[in-house]
């Protein structure tokens, strides 16, 4: 859907959020706010256009593609840290499972 305002044509995407709950992490230990936050980031970043320049109102110029790279780079870095934390918590250096740590978690 396109909307014409006083300025240039602004491309907008309308997304139905009625099924948003189906996309959320259903792990009972996950916090709702964190789950919603990741979904909100995905929804918002989906509206960033790769070849459009952003930040001109703050005297900056960054492309949508660079914004996406930065955001997903940060998400990837956090995921990598979380992955390493899980490995350290539940696995020995030789790759075998730490039974006590696993049973305490379960």
Walk me through the structure.
The protein has 4 helices and 4 strands. The chain has 106 residues and is mainly alpha-helical. The strands form 2 sheets. Strands 1-2 form a two-stranded antiparallel ribbon. The protein has a two-stranded antiparallel ribbon with strand order 3-4. A hairpin with a 7-residue loop joins strand 3 and strand 4. The radius of gyration is 20 Å and the shape is elongated. The model has no long low-confidence stretch (mean pLDDT 76).
Which range best describes the helical content: under 10%, 10-25%, 25-40%, 40-55%, 55-70% or over 70%?
A: 40-55%
**Main sheet characteristics:** 2 strands, antiparallel
Q: Please report the distance between the alpha carbons of the first and last residues.
A: 48 Å
Order of helices and strands: EEHHEEHH
Q: Could you give the order of strands across the largest sheet?
A: 1-2
Total number of helical segments?
4
Q: How would you describe the shape?
A: elongated
Strand content: 5-15%
Would you report the number of β strands? 4
Pairing-aware structural class of the strands and helices?
Answer: mainly alpha
Mean pLDDT: 76
Low-pLDDT parts are: none
């Amino acid at each position: 859907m396109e909307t014409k305002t006083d300025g240039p044509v602004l491309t907008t995407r309308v997304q139905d959020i009625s099924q948003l709950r189906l996309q959320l992490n259903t792990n009972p230990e996950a916090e709702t706010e964190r789950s919603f936050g990741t979904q909100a980031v995905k929804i918002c970043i989906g509206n960033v256009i790769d070849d459009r320049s952003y930040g001109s109102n703050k005297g900056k110029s960054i492309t949508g593609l660079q914004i996406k790279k930065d955001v997903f780079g940060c998400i990837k870095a956090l995921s990598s840290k979380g992955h390493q934390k899980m490995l350290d918590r539940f696995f020995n250096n030789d790759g075998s499972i730490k039974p006590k740590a696993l049973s305490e978690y379960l």
